[in-house]
C-alpha cells in the first residue's frame, strides 16, 4: 500500500509539472515604439493662399507652412530649402506658431527672380514621425518699381540710347576689318547685314556729334577697303558671315557657305547711305563714294534669278550650288533686296521679277483685321517686327505705295497689332502690357527664335518696340522708358540695351546682336530727323529703280 501511494504521488507530481510547463506563456519579441507620420495642412504667402505658384511676390515675403503635428525644430534647417533658378541655396530665418506646427520662413529675395521653396519628407514631428509627402512652392518676385537711373528728358534719353548703342559698332567693331561682330561673343566672326545696319548707325552718330566726321570717315574707309580687297564675294554678293581678320567665308550652316543676297542687300543699304552722307569734294570722300558704287554695281542681282526665273534666290554656294533653293518672296524683311536689284544700273531686274517673285502676283496681300487693326500684307497677325525694320532703315515708308499696299499703313498696322497683342496678353505672360511689349527675332534662354503673336514664348526684345518709334511713337517711347528706368539694372549695359528678357520665367540676356542693336540707332534717328531715310532715298539709282517697280512716294 505504501508503494502504491508513492507511485501515485510521483505520477501526480509529474502530471502537474507537465501541465504547468504547457500553460506558461511564450515571451513575445520586443515591439518598437509606434511613430505616426504626419501631413502638410495649409500654406500662405503674405497671408494669401493660391496653390503652390506665386507671382509678383515682394522681396521680403512671409511664407507660412502649417502641418498636422508639432515639428522637431532640429530637422527644419535640412528639410526646408529655398533655392534660386540656378539651384543656389538662399538663406532664410524661421519662427514658429501654433505650438510649433507652423513654420514661418522669411527670406530676402532679389527682384524679378524665380525661387523654389521645398519641404522634404525628412521633416520630423516631435513624436518622431516623418512628413508623408514633400511639397514645392514656386515663387517669382515682382519688378522693382523704383527708377534705376535719374529721370531725364525724352530727348536726352534718345541721345543716350543712340550714343551708348553705337559703341557696339564703333568701339567694338572688328579691329582689322572695322565690320560688326555678329554678337558680343563672336570673336572674328563678322556679319555683313549687321554691318550694314551699323554703318547707318555710325552715320547717325557722326551727324549727332557722337563720333567726329573724320573718325567716321576713317572707319568707313577701313570697312570699304576690307570689302574691296579682302572679303570674298560670289557673283558680287557677300556671304552672311565673314572672318573679320582674313575676309574668308564663315559658313552660316552646312550648305550656306557662299553668297547670301539678303545680307548683301542690308550691307548695300548701309553703304549707299554712307555714300550719300560723305558727299564732300575732297579726295578721301570722293574715293569712298566711288568704291561704294563699284561694290554695289558688282553685285550680280540678275544672276540670282537662277537661270532667268521671275524670282530672286537667297543663297548660292560654290560647293553646293543652289542646293538651299530658297526663293525670296514676301512679306518679310527683304523688300530692299528687290528695290536694290531693280535699281542696279549694271545687273538690274525687270518689274515682272518683283511682281511674280516678291509679291506672288498679289498673294502677298492679307487684308484681315487683328486686335482691331487691318493688316495690308503678310502672315496672320503680322509676324515678327523685324519685317518692318530691316528694309525700312533706308526705304522711307511714309507715303510709299504700289499696287499691293500703302507701306506706311503696313508698318503702322503691323506694329500696332504687335502692341495690342501684348496688351491683351492672351497667354498671361508676366509683365506684358502697355509699357512692356515687342515681339521679334531675338535670343531666348538657351536658344534663338523669331517671336511673334503666333510664336509667343514670353520673351520681349527691346529692339522690337524701340525700332518701331517712327510707327508707334507714343507706345514705343513708353516701352523705352520702362526698359531703361525699371529694368535698367538688368538690361542696360556697355552697348545699350541687352538683347531680350523674360519676366514669366525670369531670364535676362547677356548678349548684344548687331542685327538688333543697329535698327535701334537708325530708327530712333529716322523718328527724330528722317536722316537715314533721306540719305538712302536720295540715291539716284533708288529713285529710278523703285519708280520702275511701280512705287509712288513724295520721297522718290
TrEMBL record:
Signal peptide boundaries: 1-28
Domain SbsA Ig-like: 54-137
Gene3D superfamilies xref list: 1.50.10.140
Residue ranges constituting the Glycoamylase-like domain according to the UniProt record: 327-540
Database matches in PROSITE patterns: PROKAR_LIPOPROTEIN
Protein keywords: Signal
Pfam family, one: Big_5
Highest taxon of the lineage: Bacteria
Listed name of the protein: Beta-glucosidase
Species of origin: Mucilaginibacter psychrotolerans
